[in-house]
Amino acid sequence: MDSQASDLYFPEGASGLPVIDYLRRRVCTFRYIAAVHSGTAHYFGTVVLTPDELTRPTAGGGSAATEAETVKIRRRVQKWFGLGMKIGGCLGIPSAGDFVKAFGALVSEYETEHADGKATNRMKRIFTSRSSSRNSSHIDQAGSGSLSETGQDASIDAPHMPFEFDYHQVLLSFFEILAVAYEKFLANPDAHRNQSYVDAWMKVDGKIKKIVAVVIKEMESFAHTRFQDEWAQIAAGD
Fold it and tell me: Among 129, 156, 213, 234, who pairs with 82 as Cys (CB 3.0-4.6 Å)?
């Protein structure tokens, strides 16, 4: 493969790595986050964080702030559940172009709804759209279409459930399905050897990176608290 072809097939990512390696590292990051939250991996080789520590409210200011943090976590879990369900429905799309477009439309919808704060009033149709989602393979590869153009419901929020979601179970499942989606893209030469598909995927990856950044920032905060607690115990022992 000459240098020109290499540039086309494996353009440089933001990290300076070839995109194919960059995305493989992203898959490793997804599974590392899941491992830390499941208690099977240390946080950067230092401490093992417990599920209780990883869901402890971080906001200050008393009970009102704690309640606000709890509500924020609950909404986040609902959004992850909805997005994960929709991504799962996209994994069966055989066409590389259609899969990239569908995945991008879902993540863009997640970002828009997550930002406007009004998603819960219009995001209750996830299961009613499952039959139409099977027809999502007609997305125009060259256009800028969305899932709605294929007849698939683009909403990604979860329907009402008569029980609370378990934060850790949803997180583990959500990051695993992200890893599977990335692996599907990487396993298809028609996808990662097409410049337009790579560009589209990297744009979506920039949005996924925001989700990852929030989780890692919270992991860092929890680990810092754990460090302080352990140092305090050591100091008290002296």
Answer: 156
